[in-house]
Specification:
44% of the residues lie in helices and 12% in strands. The chain is α/β, with parallel strands linked by helices.
Length: 202
């Protein structure tokens, strides 16, 4: 398999009230909370300090893109401001939306377990391929992202979601799907995908 040819700086959006409540947000348009706003600014400062020349090169190429969901847009704008860049100069792409949790969106995991215990057991058995009622699996999300990755013409700075990061781990870095599906994706940190590998920053 030919290694993915471009370098991607990936930032997961900052914390939201849904995150702090262990509530499934999926494609619900939930804003950042105060901690999430602080995380977004902090990772922007960290990336400016660590990757300053690369940030400027990506900016000159117009290579900043975010999920259209509010938490990703807010994270991008706060991070760009912290990097000394115009906050709103970036693209949106719907392919970068989080996977949908369907009928489970808005519920806490405790509520999901009480409502659909058999489906929760099925999800544990094959997390990558399991789709909630009316929602998407990680496999479906990866299928949505594969043509998007193939369409890229150069390096990019991306603000998106935890599910998207897990799909990228498999599609770009060759992480086995069953491992990627369980990978913790931190908020307030960045992942750099490069030469078929990935590393955390922040």
């Amino acid at each position: 398999m030919t290694p993915f040819p471009f370098r991607l700086i990936f930032v997961r959006h900052g914390e939201t009230a849904y995150n702090s409540e262990n509530r499934l947000q999926g494609q619900r348009d939930v804003p950042l909370d105060a901690r999430g706003r602080d995380q977004a600014s902090a990772i922007g400062k960290t990336l400016r300090a660590r990757l300053g020349e690369e940030i400027d090169r990506l900016e000159a190429a117009g290579a900043f893109v975010a999920s259209p969901l509010k938490r990703a847009r807010e994270t991008m704008e706060l991070a760009r401001a912290a990097m000394g860049l115009p906050p709103k100069r970036y693209r949106l792409d719907p392919a970068l939306k989080e996977l949908s949790f369907g009928e489970w969106e808005g519920l806490t995991w405790a509520e999901v377990k009480a409502r659909d215990p058999k489906l929760v057991t099925a999800r544990r058995a094959d997390k990558w391929n399991f789709a909630p009622p009316g929602g998407e699996s990680y496999a479906m999300l990866a299928g949505r992202l594969k043509p998007w990755l193939a369409s890229l013409a150069g390096d990019d700075f991306i603000v998106s979601h935890g599910g998207v990061a897990r799909a990228f781990m498999t599609l770009i870095a060759g992480v086995p799907p069953e491992i990627a599906a369980e990978a913790p994706i931190a908020q307030g940190r960045a992942i750099v995908f490069d030469k078929g590998r990935y590393e955390w920053i922040g």
